[in-house]
Write a structure and sequence with these properties.
globular, 602 residues, FAD/NAD(P)-binding domain, Rieske Iron-sulfur Protein, 13 helices, single chain, 5-stranded antiparallel sheet, alpha+beta, 5-stranded parallel sheet, 18% helix
């Protein structure tokens, strides 16, 4: 028996032309320093992908068909690149071997019921199509056709697909964009983060061919915002989620440096701060959060930063090099900034009101282990205190005075004390906003107003994992899924959100991965060694595991995420089995036989 793998692109996708249906390139509008400019496809062409070019194909023998059992994956080398060969339910599949998000090796991920989950950040891909099914990331995997002949396995694949290890889904384009009134659009998306971009892309992937306009207060096209605190010296073009040409090609218009001041839901009009009005048919609000500022004296002086843009992050790195840095707030942003600057600054001090970093999120024991890691890397903590004053010298920051009486030398101060929903412009709109400013939506990301949807950090939505309790989950992965669900329901698909929250943080070359929703946990069961920073922590409420976190314990978090995504419950009594013999636990989950966990099975 022989297995051959060949790239296949559906015929209907091959026939797509690079031009819009009206035969004209459609413009992307974006603003630089407030000036609108139009870019056309002819100015910035995108190279087309000819996967079917015979000269681009490669074939190699990789293994025997009996080398793989059901449920196994193998990374195979074709000489000019690698593929992921999978056997499930007696059938072979082959896709790209790297996660398109950050390049994680999928062979180390989790295979379950027709999809593979990334071991690093939880993105999921269909093994039959390569399509992305859960996030983060925007692209799918290239898929290769599998043929079986003569007990030897051969893979025939496109060199280009093997090298890029990603595939952008085919999308519709806007029909006759030139016929539209500039002040009206079918879909208006307020916010150009992950939720807004995924919404726009999903609409095009589903064949939507009417006008889409995104608007953002930012100067830049959508970018990878988590990198602002994890890789602070990244320039905007380095962290862009899509190049300018992408927006031109798929007729997604982006208005930058444009702030919506109000929404008139009766007239379906968005009123911009500069007086411009735009009519819409469907509206997505994905404005995210606004960082909280300090309330003490001196908060407005130079060299005091909230990290909101690439320019903010770049400037902090430049000013902090060989200088004294004070970070206020042991939030994810604050801790990641401290870790990034520790080797660059002369000193890094971190001020926090709580006793231990991450105590409410990861628990006290994990928080103390993380704190110890920071202290071993020259970060000084000042806990259970607040900033009372920022002092200046010749107009620049000189000292940070704490309520405890301690005075810290400071050339730069970074504020990471949390954020509030950026929804102030909706207060008089009639859209349901809760007491904390979050937009309330249902399982389909719909607000109380027909045709108005909301997504991302600014929403409260029903989380299936927690019996549809309304929660706020300000995670990058969740924003992607919100945007997709909103888009599908703009098209009346009736799709409900059911994803498992998944996040990660990176500090000193180490990552903590986390899945679930641990709000209100009453116990933490830890397996492994906290001192060695190799552990898995299970967060329980009553008898049920509601979240899991790990460091140097991959792919346990992705495995637990798959169990939770299937609607299965992990009990507190099962934790030892999950941590110590995860392969047995997960094997039982896949077969549906969980009896061994309670000692009743084999």
């Amino acid at each position: 028996v022989e297995v051959k793998i060949e790239v296949v692109i559906p015929e209907k996708e091959r026939s797509k032309e690079e031009m819009s249906p009206n035969g004209k390139a459609s413009p992307m509008i974006y603003r630089v320093n407030g000036t609108a400019r139009h870019y056309h496809l002819e100015e910035h062409p995108i190279a087309s992908n000819h996967y079917h070019n015979p000269k681009d194909m490669v074939e190699a023998s990789v293994c025997h068909v009996k080398d793989l059992e059901n449920g196994q994956m193998r990374e195979v080398d074709l000489g000019c690149g690698k593929a992921l060969l999978i056997k499930e339910s007696g059938e072979f599949h082959a896709v790209g071997h790297k996660c398109p998000h950050y390049g994680a090796p999928l062979v180390k991920g989790v295979l379950s019921k027709g999809r593979v989950r990334c071991p690093w950040h939880g993105a999921c891909f269909n093994i039959g199509t390569g399509d992305i099914e859960d996030f983060p990331g925007l692209d799918s995997l290239p898929r290769f056709q599998v043929k079986i002949e003569k007990e030897k396995v051969y893979i025939r694949a496109s060199k280009q697909a093997l090298q890029t290890q990603r595939r952008t889904k085919m999308m519709a384009k806007c029909i006759s964009l030139s016929n539209y009134n500039l002040s009206s659009t079918n879909v208006l998306i307020i916010g150009a983060g992950a939720a807004g971009l995924v919404c726009a892309e999903t609409l095009r992937q589903e064949g939507f061919s009417d006008r889409i306009v995104m608007c953002t207060m930012d100067r830049h096209l959508p970018y990878d915002r988590p990198k602002l605190s994890k890789s602070m010296d990244s320039h905007p073009e380095q962290i862009a989620l899509r190049p300018k040409e992408f927006f031109c090609t798929y007729d997604i218009e982006v208005l930058t440096e444009m702030q919506v001041a109000a929404v008139d839901i009766k007239s379906k009009i968005a009123v911009f701060k500069d007086g411009f009005n735009m009519e819409y048919n469907k509206l997505l609000i994905a404005t995210g959060n606004t960082p909280k500022a300090l309330s003490c004296k001196g908060k407005e002086m130079e060299n005091v930063f909230n990290i909101r843009t690439p320019e903010d992050a770049n400037r902090v790195v430049k000013l902090a090099t060989s200088k004294n840095v004070v970070i206020v707030g042991a939030s994810f942003l604050g801790m990641e900034v401290a870790a990034y600057l520790a080797e660059r600054a002369h000193s890094v001090s971190l001020v926090e009101l709580e006793e231990v970093p991450f105590k409410k999120f990861f628990g006290e024991r994990v928080g103390r282990a993380v704190m110890k890691m920071f202290e071993s890397n020259r970060v000084k903590f000042y806990m259970q205190t607040e900033v009372s004053e920022l002092r200046e010298q010749e107009g620049k920051l000189k000292e940070v005075v704490l309520k405890s009486g301690k005075v810290l030398r400071a050339d730069v101060c970074v504020v990471g004390v949390g954020a509030v929903p950026a929804t102030g412009f909706l207060k008089q709109s009639g859209i349901n906003i809760d007491s904390k400013g979050f937009i309330v939506v249902n399982k389909m990301m719909q607000t109380n107003i027909p045709g108005v949807f909301a997504a991302g950090d600014a929403v409260m939505f029903p989380l299936a994992l927690r019996n549809n309790k309304k929660v706020n989950v300000p995670h990058w992965q969740m924003a992607h899924m919100h945007g997709r669900i909103a888009a599908l329901n703009m098209l009346a698909h009736g799709t409900e959100i059911s994803t498992v929250p998944y996040l990660w943080t990176a500090m000193f070359g180490k990552s903590i991965r986390y899945a679930g929703h641990g709000e209100g946990f009453d116990d933490v069961v830890i397996q492994g060694d906290l001192d060695e920073l190799k552990f898995v922590a299970f967060y329980t409420k009553s008898d049920e595991v509601v979240a899991v976190a790990s460091m140097n314990y991959d792919p346990i978090v992705s495995k637990v995420a798959e169990v939770l995504a299937a609607g299965r419950t992990i009990r507190k009594r099962d934790v030892d089995s999950v941590a110590q013999t995860p392969h047995l636990f997960f094997s039982s989950f896949r077969t549906g036989d969980m009896s061994w966990l309670t000692g009743k099975g084999s």
